[in-house]
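Table S4 entry, Ceramide synthase 5.
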Amino acid sequence: MAALSAWFWNERFWLPHNVTWADLADPAPGVEYPKAGHLLSALPLALGIFAVRIVFERYVAGPCASALQIQAEVGRRAQPSAVLEKVFTSITKCPDARQLDGLSKQLDWEVRKVQRWFRHRRNQDKPSTRTKFCESMWRFTFYLCVFTYGLAFLWQSPWMWDTRQCWYNYPYQVLSPGLYCYYVTELAFYWSLMFSQFIDIKRKDFLIMFIHHLATIGLISFSYVNNMVRVGSLVLCVHDASDFLLEAAKLANYAKYQRLCDFLFVVFGMIFFTTRLIIYPYWVLNTTLFESWEIIGPYPSWWLFNILLLVLQLLHIIWSYLIARIAFKALIRGKKSLMSSLLLPDGQKILSFQPSLYWPKVVLLSSLLLF
């Protein structure tokens, strides 16, 4: 175990040349540097965030849904059948013609009745519009609050206005309480999403979203441990800028305010393109690739961090193309609701839609590398 720990925390990988963990272990009084142990505080905070979500959805989002006359649909439930339930949970949710024929003979049911049972059973697992509304309202509230906090904090931070400040005196950069709170709160939120996935109704993209949350946790933790939190805070803020607008558009969609929904989606698209295709490459990548090279020089974890950020930029381009392409098709075909054509029935984020048409590997890779 000691050998594995020594290999994992190899100074030559994590730190610039001529810097050791010992140099960072004993800072001056009142000075704090990021340490891996700090990340453990995100776990109890994640449980707290999850508890707040439950209370919020029940006592805030639920009454809002009722006020907007969004009720939980009561769909037809499949009649109890141990044989079909076993097939549904263990083998397939969409049996083919041969399987349907075999089940029909085994149960002495008509094939149509078996098909109908599977359709009703699949519908049972779909979250209602009310459930989706409450979840989106929680996400909207959190994204808006964390973006507002992050922007207010960065507004007073020197590295927002001069990105070279991200690298001066690196890695001996003091961890301020505000930056610590911002980072740990973001990390705790994604941990809470990990917890809630196993309690919420399972959706089609369960595995992809699980890997996405896991990868996001890894990326945030990685940038924290090697004290790239200054530039990491810029990355977080850039990506938070459009998330709450998407959730707001989804809320309007569930409430059937289509004009407001489409307006919010247009604003979301403008912010998304601006932050991901202009601000991110010319502001973030410029400092991580060129300014850092000039000030501190490259080292192994620097290369890994920049490779991940470059791949993320490639994914931004792909996502932007897909958004623009489908939005254009929706407008050409005269869709009543632009947003409805860009969302899955279960209300998942755009770009998880129709993965069979848009390169499953790209969608999976995007979920792995999304910050």
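The longest helix spans residues 258-295.
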